[in-house]
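Researcher: Please translate sequence to C-alpha cells.
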Amino acid sequence: MTNYTQGTARYVSPKKKGFFQKLASQWQLALMSVPIFLYVLLFNYFPMWGWRNAFLDYSSKKLVARGITPYIGFDNFKWLFSRQDFLLSIRNTLAMSLINLVFGTVSAIVLAVLLNEVRQKMFKRTVQTITYLPHFLSMVIIVAMAQNIFASNGPVNDLLGLLGIQPVFWLGEGKHFWWLVGIINVWKEVGWGTIIYISAMTAIDPALYEAASIDGAGRFQKILHVTLPGIKSTFVILLIMNIGHLMEAGFEIQYLLGNGLTAEFSRTIDVFVLEYGTSQMDFGVATAAGIFKSVVAIILLLGANFISRRLGEDTLV
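Model: Translation complete:
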C-alpha cells in the first residue's frame, strides 16, 4: 500500500521482518531442519573437541598409561614438518589430487558434450548407465580389478607384448602410482560427474542453438560458443568445491593399492594419520596432521572463492 505524507505521494517500503519474526512465520521449515542441524552438530562440529589432542604429548607411553598427557603447545606441528615422510605425504596428496582434478573434470565435460550431441536416445542412455555404474562399486572391488588388469601377467602387459613393447611393472614402481590412481578414479567417477554437466546442458535455451544454426554455425561451433559457455557457471562452482578438496586425494585406493615398493609415492596425509594414530598410537601427531590438512583446505576454498568473485564468476558464498 502507498503511504502519503504532507500531501506528497511518497512510497514507504514495508518494514523488513527480523530474523526471529521470519523464523516464527516459517516454523514448519525450521522444525524440518532440526534433524539435519543436529546431525551436522554431532558429526561435524562436536568431533572438533578432539583437536585439543594436537597440543598434547602421547609419545610417552608410561605417562599416558598413568593418565597423564602433558601439554606441549605446537611441538607436534614442529615435529611434523621436520619429518621427511610427512613432507612426502603432502607432495603425494597434492600431486594425486591435481591429477584427479584435471583428468576427472576434463573427461566428465568431454563425455557430457559427446553424449549431449547423440541423437539416439537408447544409445545415449546405455552409455550413461555403463559409465556411471562403477561409482556404486566398492573401492575394494575396484582396486582388486585394477590389480588384476595391471598385474605383470595382466591384460595390459599382454597387450604391450603384442605391440612389441617391453612389459611394465605397474604395481611395483612408484613412478607409475600417481597415474594409476588417476586412471582408476576417472574410470570410477567420470559417469557420475557427467550427470551434473548433462543436467546443466539441459538448462541451455534451445533458441541459442537455433540462432547459431541461422548464423551458419556447425556442430563444433555450437559446442564452442553455446554449450561450453552455458555450463560455465556449473564448472566454476564444481571447480571451487574441488579445489577445497585438494588435500583429500583419498585413502582407500592408496592404502589398498600401495605396497612397500611404492610407499614413497602412495603415502598420503590420510595414510600418514592412520599409521601414527592407529599403529603407533601417537594421537597428538595424527591430530596435528589432520588439523593442518583441514586448515589448508579451508584456505584453498576461500582463496578460490575470492578469485572467482574478483573475476566476476559465480561463487559459493
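Researcher: Any highlights?
Model: The beta strands are 4-5, 8-9.
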